[in-house]
Amino acid sequence: MIQGGSDLDFLWIVFCSFLVLFMQAGFLCLESGLTRRKNSINVAAKNLADFCVTTVVFWGVGFGVMFGLSEGGWFGTDRIFLDFSEQNRMAGAFFFFQLMFCGAAVTIMSGAAAERMRLIFYLIISVLIAGLIYPVFGHWAWGGLDIGENYGWLRTIGFVDFAGSTVVHSVGGWAALAVLIIIGPRRGRFDADGKPQRIPPSNLALATLGGIFLLVGLLGFNAGSSLALDDSVPGILINTILAGAVGALSAGSLGFAVQNHVNVTQFINGCLAGLVAITAGCFAVSSPVACLIGLVGGMISVGGDELLKYLGIDDAVGAIPVHLGAGIWGTLAVGLYGNLEILGTGLTRGEQISVQLLGILACAVWVFGVAYITVRLLDRITPLRVPAEHEDAGLNLSEHGEVEDYEIPEHVLAEFRGTNVRQPHSTDRE
Questions:
Q1: Residue 143 pLDDT level (bands cut at 50, 70, 90)
Q2: What is the separation of C-alpha 17 from the centre of its chain, rounded to a whole number of angstroms?
Q3: What is the mean pLDDT of the chain?
Q4: How far apart are CA 412 and CA 430, in angstroms?
Q5: How far is CA 32 from CA 93, 104, 188, in A?
């Protein structure tokens, strides 16, 4: 297990871990704000529940699969149910940091599939991602990272993904896409002719706050991946913030050119897409290149959202263009623009691009394939989606027996009589 490290390095990893943990609050605010109030409790519950599930599963199984002794570069075979009281402090800090990454990968699905999926099945799929899908691909790309040897097969051939454009973001995006294809769009999202219909968000100010929280968390995401407070950190931080800022401006400008107004959701997601895109190569590109990566990332977030609408796929918060689309672009950008000397793979430019493309393809086949097959089988056993009447009433009511300070029609409440529904006091209603 990882050895050495100064006091300052140890504190840096722990500090950045808390910044990444803060992303869970960001996801919660973003998703709650971009969805309807009748589902806000459910969205919040999923964000907390999936992190709790991820923590237990990743500690028990996932960490070992990802960072255990490699079996031919495919998966780890030890470090299962580790007792960290018997490990050194850097090992504990490394696990804590990696746990936050796993939590982020799992949570991406929450927003994409919001407002229509049963909580219990969402958590079952979270277990699958945290215990198998994420750690296996993570082993391919990052296995041996903590000990400097015994690498996964992708890392061995020179694949570079510094902080997880593919390992974290694309993994979450591919899994989310598989789920969305199977469960289908929200009721009313498309008309009889397949034309998309707008479902208004409940609180764009809250969503914007969530975007800021995610920006802060992704700074820790990228800078903490240095695993040391060294001379690379300032450049990583600057490249990250530049890419996020340019991504927001790019998406906002593109939206303005088409719609003649700044779409707040596009602005937020453009910022996040820029942050996701720079994640893979933030340590090995110049500041102007970081701006270019963010610029393209923001455009992808807008174009990807339109593509999903065209295909009839309902991503409630735009998670797939942000995390999958921008994640693919950012990983490819490592090969296109990364400083070969800093990358240190010994590959030529063309070879590095080829290896990056192979990593992107491997992620797609593994993650989408396993997620789609598993979720399809689950859905055949029992529907993952809530019944239509539950969706209309809202998952706050149908999944949790709770309503907030908004009026619920009596005929809807009547469907849930005897289920211990907690209704708000009339004085609390607006």
A1: very high
A2: 16
A3: 93
A4: 19
A5: 31, 16, 19
